[in-house]
Amino acid sequence: MTAGVTDGRNDRERKKQIILGVFLSGVNHHTLWADPEAGSQIAFSTFEHVARTAERGRFDFFFLAEGLALRERNGLIFDQDVVGRPDTLPVLAALAAVTEHLGLVGTLNATFNEPYELARQLASLDHLSGGRAGWNVVTSFDAFTGQNFRRGGFLHRDDRYVRAGEFLAAARRLWDSWPADAIVADRAAGTFLRDGGAGAFAFSGKQFDIEGRFTTPRSPQGHPVILQAGVSPQGRDFAAGGADAIFSPYHRLDEAQEFYRDIQARAARQGRPPGSVKILPSASFVLGDTREEAEERQRDIAHRQVTGRTAQILLESVWNRDLSGYDPEGPLPDIDPDPTGPPVIRGRAVLHQDPHRTVAEWRALAAANDWSLRELAIHVFSRTEFVGTPAQVADRIDDFVQRDGSDGFILGSHLVPTGLDEFVDTVVPLLQERGSLRTEYTGSTLRENLGIPPRTAS
């Protein structure tokens, strides 16, 4: 090869490979369930269509977000929410039968479950899927949600990471209780145990004191892939130490790069090798034949997602006041938030720790841009990050990942179940042409496809 001439094939091989997941939210205002093209939010055909489309696009995994309680406003169920979503694990188990390569990741709560039961269910899913199970570990300190469970809402907010840390450690102890060679397959005698001690475990901590025998043999991945989210220093340390992938809330490149570097540094300080933790923001997309067409579509979608009533409710989650008397097309409320009053909204995750500071920032934004209450809500609660032609969206995704803003994205669509089809048909081929996205699956497990080192028995 002539000096100075670049081998294009080698350039493609050296490019960072983009991780792609697809998510279906639980309770949310983003899904346009009333759209004429929308399908059922609970029929299995919906989940199957999205999963098969993602696998056709060589995505890494299908992800189910979940809510454990129907959200309420002043005691009444939100009529903006999708409700009635089936339980996560049966859906993922059913999808294992209609997919071959796609990872199957579920949001499962460490506050209201028990290690033995959940570890057994996840190991079973890993067996049934041939090593494609993943667990998004979440916590809750919400007494409203806790009323659905035996413990109620007793868990103090400061203790949620203590319990989650012990929960994950206990689950790993259970998964490691079976050596890889503990099962012997014999055609004449059937399958039997080589080691009568397999499955024995004991774990003792502040939250759990358990011992016994784990009934489920070591699964194909050893440990399912673990996903977590953490923005606070405590949350970042917890995720960097125990997760294989972390949800990032940052979409601006400079902030995303800082978060990426910080998480990798925290993981290294905890003795983890480079590449052990993948960073994955969630995002949505709107495509068009031109940028102008895509932007017009995005404006229409955003205004259907955030109606005037929805805008009032979204802001009530921060103000903690009844804002139904304020005109959605008028200015922001002139009253201060009331964080210590009885909750107006129940069952929604707390996204803003300092309501007074958040409201001050929003007022400055609204004044600077001449935004109404509704326009502000559209801008601050929107997650549509990729708007443009397929080529423009492919360029933005590729650039963001190659510059270590993330390792990929978890994509959602306003239209269920067919919204992902357009992305797979038009953007995926362009990413494949760039050498940034696989054209075929190369691993047999989710962990292998993600490029995450295996977890060894502790």
Automatic annotation (TrEMBL):
This is LLM class flavin-dependent oxidoreductase. Belongs to the NtaA/SnaA/DszA monooxygenase family. One of its GO terms (molecular function) is oxidoreductase activity, acting on paired donors, with incorporation or reduction of molecular oxygen. SUPFAM superfamilies: Bacterial luciferase-like (SSF51679). It holds the Pfam family Bac_luciferase. FMN binds at residues 107, 161, 232. Keywords: Flavoprotein, FMN, Monooxygenase, Oxidoreductase. Residues 36-402 form the Luciferase-like domain. Gene3D superfamilies: Luciferase-like domain. NCBIfam families: FMN_nitrolo (TIGR03860). It comes from the Bacteria.
